[in-house]
Write a structure and sequence with these properties.
Layout: E1 3-19, E2 25-42, E3 47-52, H1 59-70, H2 78-89, H3 98-116, H4 120-124, E4 130-137, H5 150-163, E5 167-171, H6 183-197, E6 202-206, H7 213-225, E7 230-232, H8 240-249, E8 253-256, H9 263-272, E9 278-281, H10 283-286, H11 289-301, E10 306-308, H12 313-320, E11 328-333, E12 346-348, E13 358-360, E14 370-371, H13 373-378, E15 380-383
Parallel strand pairs: 4-5, 4-11, 5-6, 6-7, 7-8, 8-9, 9-10
Antiparallel strand pairs: 1-2, 1-15, 2-3, 4-13, 12-14
The structure holds ligand LLH and magnesium ion.
């Protein structure tokens, strides 16, 4: 079996999400967004698919790296293909990103799963059929009735608990919000949420990612009083020493690194030096499902949990195959948006949640996305 072609289909779909100048998503007026579907086809006509913003897999990336490495290879040699792509990264002048490699890896896993008629999480190991979700809010905003005050966070958290969530993570205010960053407002939002949901709901915070050590330790001490479960990415993750210092000085679990590059290698340094209590990796940030699993295995070897970053089919499949992840990050959620409504290019969402707060692992072959190919065909802009 050999990979014969790689195709990128760019199409439009309506969305009510928009990004601010720092890249944080918020609710907005309905507009048309662009999405790219990567299709990898083998010589027996098996196919695998993965979705990403078109810029990540622009033609230069597909022609200079994906096609050179993949065409003619056996898709079942996925580990070899991954290492060859990673090898090309060094000379790519930082053009070939971990995220781009992750998309190729997703499409290959999807192809393998479809070919074998098995969900990918079963091929990866198969640890569970369902996972508790935490509701992960969008970053704070200045929209009245949205997430613009501590009380609005409290009101929204109450609604999430009514929907079945047993855990909630709040993303607080970040620039360009006019009053952000603000450690005092962050602590007020955390206090309002704890007050609203009571003592039995697990709570986490993921605030501004560039706080100083002084601000981070102030917030961390207040979170301890509020019995928060973890404190995520408060400082620049390039400074491992700041995280060693923070972990030593706080009792609350520090989770990270999320956005740091270096795949499992940089995360090994964090474990060795005690820079976090819970390790973190996501399929997109770690460079694919396989490196993400390596991070989870690294954490497991040291008796640590590894909380998987982000929602979506690839992350859910990883969680389905590992033991040391307590929750699935379901979101990002906002009072003005309906997370349960699938985007037009999918027939259904991959992660519906039951009334007890569990997301069930997908049962479709491959990564489990229920793709609306007709919608994509009628809304295609380009095929490359
Ligand atoms: O900064 C943001 O917009 C969010 O923090 C986002 O990156 C989110 O994916 C996250 O960190 N989740 O844990
Ligand atoms: Mg985060």
């Amino acid at each position: 079996m050999r990979i014969e072609s790689i195709k990128v289909t760019t199409f439009t779909y309506p969305t009510r999400r928009c990004s601010d100048s720092a890249g944080h998503s918020h609710p907005g007026d309905e507009s048309l967004a662009k999405m790219a579907m990567l299709t990898i086809t083998a010589d027996d006509n098996s196919q695998g698919y993965a979705f990403v913003a078109p810029e990540i897999i622009r033609p230069y990336i597909v022609d200079s790296f994906f096609k050179k490495v993949l065409i003619g290879q056996n898709p079942f040699n996925r580990e070899k293909i991954w290492h060859e792509l990673v090898h090309w990264q060094r000379g790519s002048a930082q053009q070939l990103t971990d995220r781009a490699i992750a998309i190729v890896e997703q499409a290959i896993w999807d192809l393998i799963g479809r070919k074998l008629n098995m969900p990918v999480h079963k091929l990866l190991g198969g640890y569970r059929e369902k996972v508790p979700a935490y509701g992960s809010t969008m970053c704070g905003d200045e929209l009245k009735g949205g997430l613009s005050t501590p009380d609005e966070y409290g009101d929204f958290a109450e609604k999430l608990v009514l929907k079945g969530y047993k855990a909630i993570k709040i993303h607080t205010w970040m620039p360009p919000v006019s009053f952000a960053p603000s450690p005092i407002m962050d602590v007020k939002a955390c206090a309002a949420v704890r007050e609203a949901v009571g003592p039995d709901i697990a709570l986490m915070i993921d605030g501004y990612h560039w706080y100083s050590r002084s601000d981070a330790i102030y917030i961390g001490r207040e979170l301890q009083k509020l019995n928060f479960t973890w404190f995520e990415e408060p400082m620049e993750e390039q400074s491992m020493d700041s995280y060693i210092w923070l972990s030593k000085n706080l009792d609350i679990d520090i989770v990270g690194p999320e956005s740091l590059s270096g795949k499992y290698l940089s995360r090994a340094d964090w474990v060795k030096h005690g820079a976090c209590d819970i390790l973190r990796a996501g399929v997109n940030s770690a460079g694919g499902l396989t490196p993400c699993l390596k991070v989870a295995a690294l954490a497991e070897s040291f008796g640590m949990d590894c909380e998987i970053h982000g929602n979506g089919a690839p992350n859910l499949n990883v969680i389905g195959a590992i033991k040391n992840c307590r929750w699935y990050e379901r979101g990002l959620l906002h009072p003005f948006l309906n997370y349960d409504e699938p985007p037009a290019y999918l027939n259904s969402i991959v992660d519906p949640m039951d009334k007890d707060g569990f997301v069930h692992l997908p049962t479709l072959p491959g990564l489990g996305e229920d793709i609306n190919f007709n919608y994509i065909a009628t809304n295609t802009l380009t095929v490359e």
